[in-house]
Amino acid sequence: MAERDSRPHVVILGGGFGGLAAARALRRSPVRVTLVDRSNHHLFQPLLYQVATSALSAPDIAAPLRKLLRKQANARVLMADALDLDPTTRTVTLDSGELHYDFLILATGMKNNYFGHDQWEEHAPGLKTLGEALDIRSRVLRAYEAAERETDRSRQKELLTFVVIGAGPTGVEMAGALAEIAHRTLARDFDHFDPDKDARVVLIEGGPRVLAAFSEASSRSAREELEGLGVEVRTNTFVKDVDAHGVTVGEDLERIEAGTVVWAAGLKASSLTGKLGCELDRAGRVIVEPDLSVPGHPEVFVLGDLIHLEQDGALLPGVAQTALQSGKFAADQITNELLGYGRKDRFVYWDKGSMATIGRAKAVAEVGSASLSGFIAWLMWVFIHLVFLVDFRNRVAVMFEWAYAYVTWQRSARVIVDAPRRHRPRRERSRILKSALEPLEEPEASPQQPG
Amino acid sequence: MAERDSRPHVVILGGGFGGLAAARALRRSPVRVTLVDRSNHHLFQPLLYQVATSALSAPDIAAPLRKLLRKQANARVLMADALDLDPTTRTVTLDSGELHYDFLILATGMKNNYFGHDQWEEHAPGLKTLGEALDIRSRVLRAYEAAERETDRSRQKELLTFVVIGAGPTGVEMAGALAEIAHRTLARDFDHFDPDKDARVVLIEGGPRVLAAFSEASSRSAREELEGLGVEVRTNTFVKDVDAHGVTVGEDLERIEAGTVVWAAGLKASSLTGKLGCELDRAGRVIVEPDLSVPGHPEVFVLGDLIHLEQDGALLPGVAQTALQSGKFAADQITNELLGYGRKDRFVYWDKGSMATIGRAKAVAEVGSASLSGFIAWLMWVFIHLVFLVDFRNRVAVMFEWAYAYVTWQRSARVIVDAPRRHRPRRERSRILKSALEPLEEPEASPQQPG
To answer: Which residue in B has a C-alpha nearest to residue A414's C-alpha?
Structure first.
């Protein structure tokens, strides 16, 4: 690729909250920016569970990166897979060539972690990409359709059991939405069973409470709200096995037969962090300097949930706020250095609070020492999520879908999209289609850190 | 399946325009209705090209069949694959069991026809299902992204060439939308080429004019509007070969290198028509009695584009109106027979006109002997498509997307959805997931008959 521009080159890997915030904060900086992402869109991940549970369409929570950065003259977007990076030669290897950088911003985020049980993934998909969300949507809707056709009662019961593993925000939100689907959305839609009575949603958590990152009061409210929706909450329960017919849990190997299992129990860093040649924590996060740079490489910054950094006695949480604030900080460090103002010594995270929604008009929220639950918390949740949605169009579309859903209890995206019949591209096409067929980890920053 | 109800059983295969119209028209009839479809939704196929060209989301043009028929007490919905049917024993074999019928309504529609060149399908997908529309969307968006990474100019030119084969309504609408994407939507989004100048859209048609089913005046207007948008229209041109790098056309085997090829050149009947034991035409359509029943089987009706029936010197067109009117007619025949009023002798098709849209504020329309083009025709097109969209929610959502697109020239669903990483379900799950992996023909009625 022709690179005749003499301005320092900032390469950003990942177009999630962190990467996009960094790119935008560099818009008046004397640099040229290349934002690399495996997908063509920025994904608003906090609402991904709503795509998985038929409440929103995929395009409602995704905006094309090119469109978002179109007006920024010093930035370009490259849809590519980052395969390798070498901090000594300052080179990133993409599937379509090499990029040399003066500054590197690593914002590739986390992927699902099955803790050595990768065979579980087939039966218990995680929720990190749009493709995974549509896969889960299709599994859930197909399970109900299969139950309608099933004549064997015990097999029908299995099909109507939905298990969510991990009770962080994603798991809690998934379980709440699955319960609403059973008890409200589909309540009158089937002839051979009654979803309201026959469907069962089980939320499994290894720790002692749901939403472990929240206060005990919020955990309690969340649990009560979940149970009010009909979710069976099983804390202090470890998963021993996952197979095609359900999960095995606890020391006594209790069996829960289930047609659909969703994994929200753990994340690990994308594998690029291993190329930095520095110390990582067990989940593959980078143990960064207080200024978010990589030890020995002040020109490399790490963002969002890839950061392992302690502040006020706790690790920075893997939420959207961390990604946004670290992206802005890294961009400012680069600009200040280039303009001769010098760098700051340390990144200071400002905790603006956290929230999780549990169902229609139910949520928990914590801001500073205050905690809220119920309708007010839910209204806050709605408002904040609409404000932070990146694109104006998405905001209006999502608002409409939510208003419609609030009034009707319906979910507008109850659509199973069949994969096209063939899709065995020839080797010659493989370059274009590569990422369609074998998406590896997801480069977006993770705004939530489940269970 | 328990069938203790003594009312006559009407089985409807296919939940497209025809099947759904028939089911609804039977709502006060003394029958029980089972509507079988391979997918869980009714698809508004006239707008499918808008999903393929990023203007609408998949759920915008699809509504769950269960939701549409929820309030109809005598109807149930079964998501299943119809594998076989036997008119002598009045049995339909589904992948999940057998159904016995007293009346059968066959409304499974058409599938893409490659006229013996099935190997072309891989390189030139058709446009009959949501899955295919998303596949085409992904190919188009990926071609632009690959062109941005490409350093070889001739390969870049290939990637930026889009070929549509077949100039019926679907082909014309696809070509118009692809031209707008190049010259408007993406015009300012890339650094290494200028979509407005470098992208090329070619519409290939074997016959002498586009929109052959329309008047010569409308054909001419449509061609002018297409050329005004920058589409290269090649009539009297036959396709000799399609491969991974483009198409070969005409007697002199001219080569058009193209990264994306879309097939809109032909349809054939779903294979169930072959089980009726009656005469079919070359495309597999059923040569029906004037009352739409199958010769020798007055209890079996054929709907929509599966009908081969001459009226006023021409075959009934494979459009949405034919499907809707034949569905209502078949339902009324059944009701009248059961209530003792006797059947009508023949189905009379009422041609309400036809229309095709070519781009923003451009369309052609024909009603009776009047033909319209340009902005007025486009307004009519918008109005009629909104009125006929099945679900209130879809109507509002689509109206919003169109208003947004009209003002901004943007396309809101410019999102490539990656297939999930794995998806190799075990044999045990194969029953539930079967149709996700191997969707066969599409059961919806085809509202349009390309080229």
So the answer is: B64
